[in-house]
Fold this sequence. Notes:
The complex is a heterodimer of chains A (200) and B (235). Chain A is of the alpha/beta class and 200 residues long. In chain A, 34% of the residues lie in helices and 30% in strands.
Amino acid sequence: MRIGIPKLDELLGEIELGSTVLIETIGEIGIEIAIEALKRNKEKSAVFLTPRLKKRLEHIFELGEVVYLTLGEDFAPQELFKVTHALRELPEDRFIAVFLIQPLLIFHPSQRVYRFFAELSDIANARGIILMTMIDKRLVDERTLATFEESATHVIDIVEVIQGFKIIRGLRIKKSPKKISGFYKLKIKDGNVEVGELLG
Amino acid sequence: MRISTGVEELDKMLHGGLIPGRAYLVKGGPGSGKTTLTIHFLIEGAKKGEKVLYVSLEEPVDILKEDMKKLGFNIDVPNFVAIDATPVKQKRSIFEAEHFEEFAKDFKRLVDAIVNRLKGEKYTRIVIDPITMLRLTIRDELEYRRMFIGFLKEVARYDATLVLTSEFYNTDIEDYLVSGVIELREVEEGGKTLRGIKIVKFRGSAFDESLRPYKITDEGIKVYHKESIFRGSDE
């Protein structure tokens, strides 16, 4: 699979079936990367998300193009087993699962969330599903983050540096079977993502 | 050879189902689905043309029939024999010259009545729901144990598979004497009840030792046999 952002695809290479792509970010910065991947692979994708994000995505995708599994509708935050079950039972033609449920990180203790993420990653690997997930770095400690990284095959790290009133955003490949990279400039404008020149 | 519990995913946890001709105990709190699980078990046999026997010591059979109908289970079929032995029932039903409602007060009379039934007809599956009431009828533990062993031996002679249900408390005698114990557990998580099923004992077979989530749905019990509950003692 390719995400559809040229420089990022160049850095990551082809993402093989069974991979787990972890996007470490602040808040929802870079969610456009996941959306871009969905746009490019909409008929093959299922997305686990909050009702708020579902509303946002429904403006982008026609009904049925993407399979939605919504927190509070298809599963309660307590019912993590329903999520693992849904991933295990995804139709054969849906081999990309995008996981955008940050509230789960707040609802559950980090040890449980890690076990859950490791389970999702194992299912994705066994079923040949590409799993893409975002995690807000502010919601977990370094130890937990390290365990998430251990379960992922690819880690995209997004940082934000504020100098006075100037915001500089950067992106690097922190883990990948291909290679790791330094920080590149990350530009997000009107929902479009561009990975620019090498920083530093 | 194995027999199905009527819940496919539970059969997988049991590595193929129950071993026939033995006794099993299903334990759980009120509303945990003990009765529903045993009805799954009996209906499975009835669907295959087996004659099955359900003895209710707590819930009136009329109410049970209504509740089970809502789950799509029709227990009003000739080879599904349901006996209402609830102590509060009016004395109107006769079974082998006994008033059903007396059974809940006297273990021996219940045993004799069931054995008489087994002598007359071939029942493959028997459920007593719940055994808790009978435990209270015999104060002496040794006497209860003797009675219980005798009952299991009698039923075993007729190759019937026996499933008993019980609340969680004070079941060490039954736990020890039956061939298998299945527990239906509940945990509270953020105001929601999560249910987990665990096989704690299954003589003569390997089994899935994990606590697996289950739900009581409009179609009965659904076990998520590959999933974890991500909670409590499971962590």
